[in-house]
Amino acid sequence: MTNNEIAVKGQEYVLNNYGRFPIAPVKGKGSYLWDANGKQYLDFVGGIAVCILGHCHDGLVSALQEQSRQLWHVSNLYWIKSQVDLAEKLASNSGLGKVFFCNSGAEANEAAIKLARKYFYRRKESHRNEIIVFNDSFHGRTLGTLAATGQEKYRLGFAPLPAGFQYADFNNLSSVEQLIDENTCAIMVEPVQGEGGIKPADPDFLRGLRKICDREGILLICDEVQCGMGRTGKLFAYQTYGVVPDIVTMAKGLGGGMPIGAMIASDKAASGFAPGDHACTFGGNPLSTAVGNRVMDIVTGEGFLDRVNDLGKYLTRALQGIKDSRIVSIRGRGLMLGVEFDSDVRELVNICLQKGLLVLGAGNRVLRMVPPLIINETEINQAVSIIKEALKDW
């Protein structure tokens, strides 16, 4: 089937809730994809920051094949060895204590919201049920995580949404202080805002949030669904700030392409949940955690994150070498970078696709690049060359 034939069939049978590009990828290897027409693309989207080891990484393929011949699913009625192993790796590398597994970032954030509220309920402080979140944030598509998301365009049409969220301004501590009261149970923040435009937290801001939470006796939740798993050059983005949250949420890169999410909590915060308080049928299943273990082993291996830091600097310098008056700024951390322009970038994204480079937007004016962490200098040069050519036609 061709791209068009697949698209026509999809329009007939698949719910129309995605604005899709007019290609159908059918094969991937490393940093490249091929569509149904046989055209090759350099992939700087990576399934939206998911395929951190590229497509069909040999180590992940072997982990999945090995596990698929042994056990697929038993549910969390029983102990699952690969789940326990992955939990140990996440807990020991995060500085936190306990892990809950689910299938996606939205589910991980739902778990964090529920845990924060249940923690204070168990402390006989059930009035503490409000969470401070931030404008331009994105935490997911469920009703609860939509309510936590500080972008009206995602919430529009889904009212009434769950109550209990207050919206502060990102990188503005005084706006947070103004919202703190006796009902506040937590502050939830992305160390680097993704959908909001690739905006890193200022160091004093994230450290200030930690100090506020310590002073008020409330919980700090870091949403690292997009910016975690080595994306910023550290395993966890908060580690670049010298801050340890009470709860951190993960997904995307954790499975390298397999659906998996995780919430990691300090022993103190984790005490909010007891058996029956929260669950996930497929969470932490043998297949996803077998692959997750292999991803963790590779990402935490010697020199891997140092290489990500070096590549992030290389890509940043290459982007800075683009001389175009329409560029407003280049920002981000590691291999999570955004180029802000003075106008909407949707057409630029389409031109790049036509020229063989997959990128995407983050907000209206930011060209987002979240390539595989195994990208190399040659591929970076290729991507930047395509962007330069695309800018000529934009």
Q: Can you walk me through this structure?
A:
- With 394 residues, the protein is an alpha/beta fold.
- It is 38% helix and 18% strand.
- It has 14 helices and 17 strands.
- Strand 13 and strand 14 form a beta hairpin.
| Residue share in helix | 25-40%
Structural class: alpha/beta
Number of helices: 14
What's the multimeric state?
A: single chain
Largest sheet: 7 strands, mixed
Uncertain stretches? none
- The geometry reads as globular
Strand content: 15-25%
Brief sketch in words of this structure:
The protein is built from 14 helices and 17 strands. With 394 residues, it is an alpha/beta fold.
What are the salient characteristics of this protein?
alpha/beta, globular, 38% helix
What topology does this entry show?
Blueprint: H1 3-13, E1 25-29, E2 32-35, E3 40-43, H2 46-49, H3 58-68, H4 81-94, E4 98-102, H5 105-122, E5 130-134, H6 143-148, H7 152-155, E6 165-168, H8 173-177, E7 184-189, E8 192-193, E9 199-200, H9 203-216, E10 219-223, E11 247-250, E12 261-265, H10 267-270, H11 286-299, H12 304-320, E13 327-333, E14 336-341, H13 346-354, E15 357-358, E16 360-361, E17 366-369, H14 377-393
Parallel strand pairs: 3-15, 5-6, 5-7, 7-10, 10-11
Antiparallel strand pairs: 1-2, 2-3, 4-12, 8-9, 11-12, 13-14, 14-17, 16-17
Helix pairs in contact: 3-11, 4-11, 12-14
